[in-house]
Design brief:
About 45% of the residues lie in helices and about 20% in strands. With about 180 residues, the protein is of the alpha/beta class. A five-stranded mixed β-sheet has the order 3-2-1-4-5, sandwiched between helices.
Length: about 180
């Protein structure tokens, strides 16, 4: 069984019909130092990082930090989605993400950025189905966390946001 934990967040680019999951795999022994580095990178008075709401300068700072942390980043995306069916696309991508993480990376401990209670419940049903059908191994587990409480979720937010921007706005002008 892998001890690696993966932190997951999504980015939706409705205008481009793009849904992305960013996943960052981190060994538990690296979690505390990475959290400290992320918190130290915050400007004074700011409590969390978010790709869509932060400045270009702060985005670059987090990207540079990500470049130097001991982590593996993965992006899974689907293009051509109908924005009215984004939740359906998400559930489909969850299956692919869990299977990829488990089979190709040996990671089965997933931490998702928490959303609305009803959305978390829908994700939990899908994730239970993934486990029950054997798509993921017997040690498969998942939790939901808030980015205010878990700074490591800022990393997949950064990965998904940066990849979405590079696909839909390669010049980086959507600040």
């Amino acid at each position: 069984m892998s001890t690696t934990r993966v932190y997951i967040d999504e980015s939706i680019r409705s205008d481009a019909g793009l849904y992305l999951f960013g996943a960052v795999c981190i060994e538990p022994s690296s979690e505390v130092p990475i959290r400290r580095a992320l918190l130290a990178a915050l400007p004074s008075g700011i409590r969390r990082f978010h790709w869509r709401h932060d400045s270009r300068q702060h985005r670059l700072a987090i990207l540079r930090l990500l470049e130097h942390v001991p982590a593996t980043s993965i992006v899974l995306f689907q293009a051509g989605i109908d924005p009215r069916k984004a939740e359906r696309h998400r559930q489909h991508l969850l299956w692919n993400l869990a299977a990829t993480l488990d089979r190709e990376f040996g990671v089965n401990d997933l931490v998702f950025e928490s959303r609305e209670t009803s959305q978390n419940a829908k994700d939990a049903r899908t994730l239970r189905g993934i486990s029950q059908t054997g798509v993921a191994g017997p040690d498969f587990r998942y939790t939901f966390a808030r980015p205010l409480d878990e700074p490591l979720l800022w990393l997949p937010d950064t990965i998904a946001g940066a990849c979405g921007m590079s696909i839909t706005d390669p010049r980086g002008e959507d600040d």
